[in-house]
Write a structure and sequence with these properties.
The chain is mainly beta. Among the domains are: about 200-265, Cholin Binding (left handed beta-beta-3-solenoid, Ribbon), CATH 2.10.270; about 395-455, left handed beta-beta-3-solenoid, CATH 2.10.270.10; about 460-520, Cholin Binding (left handed beta-beta-3-solenoid, Ribbon), CATH 2.10.270; about 530-660, L,D-transpeptidase catalytic domain-like (Beta Barrel), CATH 2.40.440. The protein is about 10% helix and about 40% strand. The chain contains 4 helices and 59 strands. Strands 53, 54, 55, 56, 57 and 58 form a 6-stranded mixed β-sheet that branches. Strand 46 (about 510) and strand 47 form a beta hairpin. The termini are far apart.
Length: about 650
C-alpha cells in the first residue's frame, strides 16, 4: 500500500509540475486555468489508488506554505501538502520552484540566472525574479524586459545599442562590454559601459571606423568628403586604417597621408613627383593635366610611376622631351648643340618637316645628336643637294644674291623658266636662273613685260606714254582686239598705218573706223559726236553736249582735243514754243526735286538760269510716272532725262563743267 501511495504522490507532483511550468511564460494562453487544473488533478488522483488503496490512508502533509530546510533551501507546500512547482506570484513578486532539479525537487531558485522554457531569467538572493531594466551581477550586466525575460542579442536602450550575448555559455545574456566582438560576420566595438561604438575609434595600433550600423568598416569608405581605406587583410589588426604610406589595392597603388586620407592629384616625395587620378589610383603612363602632357614611368624599377622630368626619354620607340617641371615639350626645342622639333603629339621628328612656310631637315642619322636640325650648310640628302640657312630653313622661294633674284621651288631646287608665285608669273632665265625684270623681254617669239618686281604684266599696260594690251598669258597683242566688248587697234610689226609694234592707236582712222582718244573704235554717229566735242574745253574733266534737234545728250570725259565719249542718251528738250536755250554754259546748283503743277521732277542740275537737267515727270501725290517720254521736244525749256541718267549727272558732274547746247 505504501508503494502505491508513493506512486500516487509522485503523479500528483508531476501534475503540479505540469501546471506550474511557464505560468510566467510568454502569454496567458500558456497558463492553464485553475478549473482545468483541478479537474486534471482529480483525475490523476483517482488513477493513483485501486480497490486496496484509499485516500484516507495517505498521511497528512507535514508543511503548508513556505518552508526552509536546514540547508537554507526554500520550498512551498500546498494545502494538501504537495510541493508547489513552477512559477509562483506572491505579494507582487515572482518566484520559481524548480521541478526540474533532480537533486532537490521544488527548490526555490535564487541568486542565479536560469533558463526556463526558451527564456533566461534572473533571480536575486531572495529568489525574487528581476524584471524591467538593468540587472547588475558580479559577472556583469543583464537586461530584462517587463515580463522578466532576459534580453539576448541587440537592444536599443535610450538611443544606445547594446549586445547581450545569448551564446555566452557561462553567463547567457550577459552584456558585452569593453571589447571587440564578431557578430553575424561583422566586428563591433563596445566601450566599458557596453555601448556599441560608432564612427572613428582610436586604439594604440591606430584608427578604426564603424559604419552607421556599428559594423566595423572594411575596405574603402568616403567620410566627410575624404576617402579612407580600412585593411581587411591586415592579419594582426584586421580593419586598421591605412595611413602615411603607399599601398597596392586591387592592382593599383594609392597614397595615404598621416591622417589616413587618400591623396589626390600631385604628390611630392624626395625622389620627385607622382600623380593620382580622380579615383585616387596612382597615374601610370601619359596624363593630360591642365592642358599639359606628363609621363609617369611605370618601368622605373626603383620608383614606379615617378614623373619623368628634365630629360629626353624613349617611349615606345619615340623620343620625347620633358621640361624641369615634367611638362612634355612641343614645337621648337633649343639645346646647346642646336635645335630639335617635336610634333603636336610631342614626338621628336626626324627627316623632312614642313613647319610654317619653310622646310627643315632633322638628321636622324646624326650619331651624336639624333634628330638635330641641319642648318647653315649645304647637305646632300638622298642624292640631291640642298641649301639650309642659319635658321635651318631649306632655301625655298625668293633668294637675293649679288643684285639678282633667284627662286627655289618647294622641293628645294633652283627654278628656271616660268614660275607662278602667289598668283603672279615670273621668268627665270634658263641660262643663269636669274629673274627677269624692268621692261620688255622677248620669249619664244612673244613680247612680255616685267615690272621691277619681276612680275609679268597682263591686260592694259602704259609704258612711255603709250598703251599696250597683254593677254592673260602676258603675251603682247597686236592688230584688232576686242576687249570688254570694245574694239581697239594695236599696231603690228611693220604696220602700214605706222606706229610702234603693240602700241594702241587713238584719235585716228584705221581701216575706215575712227578710234577715240581712249583708243575705243566708234560708230559713225559716235565718231561725229567725238569730233564735235574735241574743240571745247571745260574747267573739269567732264563735258556735256546737247543736240536739241536730235534730242540727244552726250557725256564726255577727258580734256580738249582728247575727249572720250562716256554716254549718249536720248532726252526731251524744250518744245518749239518753249525751246531750250542754246549756247555754252557751266553747271551750277543741284537739288533733289522740285514741283511744277501736279508734277514732280527729281535730281535736277542747273546750267543756265532756270534751265535744268532733270528727270521725266512723276506725280507729286503718289510718285507714279506721269510722262516718261524722251527723244522728242516736250519740255518747257529744261532737258528731261530718264531718272537714272538725271541722277548720274547729279552724282558725278561737278559744278563748273562746260555744257554746250546747239
Amino acid at each position: 500500500m505504501k508503494k502505491k501511495l508513493k506512486h500516487c504522490v509522485a503523479m500528483t507532483m508531476i501534475v503540479c509540475m505540469f501546471f506550474s511550468i511557464n505560468v510566467h511564460g510568454e502569454e496567458s494562453d500558456n497558463i492553464v486555468q485553475e478549473t482545468e487544473q483541478s479537474a486534471i488533478q482529480s483525475q490523476l488522483m483517482n488513477d493513483c489508488y485501486d480497490s486496496d488503496t484509499y485516500l484516507s490512508e495517505v498521511q497528512e502533509p507535514s508543511y503548508i506554505g513556505w518552508h526552509t530546510d536546514q540547508e537554507g533551501n526554500k520550498f512551498f507546500y500546498e494545502q494538501d501538502g504537495s510541493l508547489y512547482l513552477g512559477w509562483k506570484y506572491e505579494d507582487g513578486k515572482w518566484y520559481y520552484l524548480d521541478g526540474n532539479n533532480t537533486d532537490i525537487v521544488g527548490i526555490m531558485v535564487k541568486d542565479t540566472v536560469m533558463k526556463i522554457g526558451n527564456q533566461y531569467y534572473c533571480f536575486d538572493a531572495e529568489g525574487i525574479m528581476q524584471s524591467s531594466g538593468w540587472i547588475s551581477r558580479s559577472e556583469g550586466w543583464y537586461y530584462a524586459d517587463a515580463r522578466g525575460a532576459l534580453i539576448t542579442g541587440w537592444k536599443d536602450i535610450r538611443g544606445t545599442w547594446y549586445y547581450f550575448d545569448g551564446n555566452n555559455e557561462q553567463y547567457p545574456g550577459l552584456m558585452v562590454e569593453n571589447c571587440t566582438k564578431y557578430i553575424d560576420g561583422h566586428q563591433y566595438y563596445f566601450n566599458a559601459d557596453g555601448a556599441m561604438q560608432f564612427g572613428w575609434l582610436h586604439y594604440p595600433e591606430g584608427w578604426y571606423y564603424t559604419d552607421a550600423n556599428g559594423a566595423q568598416a572594411i575596405g574603402w569608405r568616403y567620410i566627410h568628403s575624404t576617402w579612407y581605406y580600412f585593411d581587411g587583410n591586415n592579419e594582426q589588426y584586421p580593419g586598421l586604417m591605412v595611413e602615411n604610406c603607399t599601398k597596392y589595392i586591387d592592382g593599383h597603388q594609392y597614397y595615404f597621408n598621416a591622417d589616413g586620407a587618400m591623396q589626390f592629384g600631385w604628390l611630392h616625395y624626395p625622389e620627385g613627383w607622382y600623380y593620382t587620378d580622380a579615383n585616387g589610383a596612382q597615374a601610370i603612363g601619359w596624363r593630360y593635366i591642365h592642358s599639359t602632357w606628363y609621363y609617369f614611368d611605370e618601368n622605373n624599377e626603383q620608383y614606379p610611376g615617378l614623373m619623368v622630368e628634365n630629360c629626353v626619354k624613349d617611349i615606345q620607340g619615340y623620343k620625347y622631351h620633358f621640361s624641369a617641371g615634367g611638362a612634355m615639350k612641343f614645337g621648337w626645342l633649343r639645346y646647346p648643340e642646336g635645335w630639335y622639333y617635336t610634333n603636336t603629339s610631342g614626338t621628336q621628328v626626324t627627316g623632312w618637316q614642313r613647319i610654317g612656310n619653310a622646310w627643315y631637315y632633322f638628321d636622324g642619322n646624326n650619331e651624336q645628336y639624333p634628330g638635330l636640325m641641319v642648318s647653315n650648310c649645304t647637305k646632300e640628302i638622298n642624292g640631291n643637294t640642298y641649301i639650309f640657312n642659319a635658321s635651318g630653313a631649306m632655301r625655298e622661294g625668293w633668294y637675293y644674291d649679288n643684285g639678282n633674284w633667284y627662286y627655289y621651288d618647294t622641293s628645294g631646287f633652283i627654278a628656271s623658266g616660268w614660275r607662278v608665285v602667289k598668283g603672279y608669273w615670273y621668268y627665270l632665265n634658263p641660262s643663269d636662273n636669274k629673274m627677269l625684270k624692268n621692261g620688255w623681254k622677248k620669249i619664244d617669239n612673244n613680247w612680255y613685260y616685267f615690272y621691277s618686281s619681276g612680275a609679268m604684266a597682263t591686260n592694259w599696260l602704259a609704258v612711255g606714254g603709250y598703251w599696250y594690251f597683254l593677254s592673260d598669258n602676258g603675251a603682247m597683242k597686236t592688230g584688232w582686239q576686242n576687249v570688254g566688248g570694245t574694239w581697239y587697234y594695236l599696231y603690228q610689226k611693220y604696220d602700214v598705218h605706222g606706229g610702234l609694234e603693240g602700241v594702241m592707236a587713238r584719235n585716228c582712222y584705221i581701216d575706215g573706223y575712227y578710234l577715240s582718244a581712249n583708243g575705243a573704235m566708234l560708230s559713225p554717229e559716235e565718231a561725229r559726236w567725238v569730233l564735235r566735242a574735241q574743240p571745247y574745253s571745260s574747267q573739269t574733266g567732264y563735258l556735256i553736249l546737247v543736240d536739241r534737234a536730235a534730242c540727244r545728250t552726250t557725256i564726255f570725259a577727258g580734256s580738249a582735243g582728247a575727249w572720250n565719249l562716256l554716254y549718249n542718251w536720248q532726252c526731251a528738250p524744250g518744245k518749239p514754243s518753249t525751246p531750250t536755250v542754246g549756247g555754252q554754259f557751266t553747271v551750277g546748283s543741284k537739288g533733289y526735286y522740285f514741283d511744277s503743277g501736279n508734277a514732280r521732277c527729281y535730281w535736277y542740275t542747273q546750267f543756265c538760269g532756270d534751265y535744268l537737267f532733270h528727270s521725266v515727270l512723276y506725280s507729286k501725290y503718289n510718285g507714279s510716272l506721269m510722262d516718261g517720254r524722251v527723244g522728242m521736244q516736250l519740255s518747257h525749256g529744261c532737258v528731261r532725262l530718264p531718272i537714272q541718267n538725271a541722277k548720274w549727272i547729279y552724282d558725278n558732274i561737278p559744278a563748273g563743267t562746260k555744257v554746250v547746247v546747239f
